[in-house]
Amino acid sequence: MKHVEYVYTFGMEPDEVERRLAEQGHGTLALADDGDAYAIPISYHYSADDGRILVRLADHEDSDKMHYVEATTTATLVLYGSPESDESWSILVRGDLRPAEGLTDTQINELYQPLRVFGEDVAELEPTFWALHPDEVTGRRTGDVDET
Fold first, then answer.
1. Which domain holds residue 20?
2. Is 114 exposed, middle or buried (0-12, 13-18, 19+ CB in 10 A)?
3. DSSP structure string for 44-113
4. Could you say which DSSP state residue 118 is in?
5. How confident is the model at residue 64 (pLDDT cuts 50, 70, 90)?
6. Which of the listed residues 5, 24, 49, 75 has the most CB atoms within 10 Å of its CB?
């Protein structure tokens, strides 16, 4: 395809990946059950101390999210940004998703924005917390060819 425009992308340095993970706070969590995919927007907290990513989900009766969380072998968190029309970056974090325990209400309110509720009865919602333990982290960004 001769007339398609291209932009070069390059791997991000580990410190830039860590900075973006710490700053972003939201992304898309991709889950799967056999050949059936499911992706949801989520809020998260990156723990630089141990490298895990804490994910908050709302559980309610007949929750598709909980079904997919329990069925998923390897979860993927997708983050991306495009601050300028000719700039962009993306990060993929793949790993095991396990229940996170021991968070207090005070910690939860400090780590996350208020829980978004879409027509559910708040009394019937149960926030659950999961830890994504990264096995693989890949960061890419646009740049000039002479940056390599």
1. 9-113+122-147
2. exposed
3. EEE-TTT--EEEEEEE-TT-HHHHHHHH-SSEEEEEEE-SSTT--EEEEEEEEEEE-----HHHHHHHSP
4. S
5. confident
6. 75
> Is 58's pLDDT higher than 90?
no
Residue 2 inside a domain? The answer is no
Average pLDDT, the chain: 86
CATH number of the domain where residue 135 is located: 2.30.110.10
Report if residue 37 sits inside a domain. Answer: yes
Classify residue 1: in a domain, yes or no.
no
Q: Which amino acid is at 77?
A: L
Residue at token pair 């340095």:
13
Residue 92 forms part of a structural domain: yes
Q: Rounded to an integer, what distance in angstroms lies between the CA atom of residue 47 and that of residue 127?
A: 19
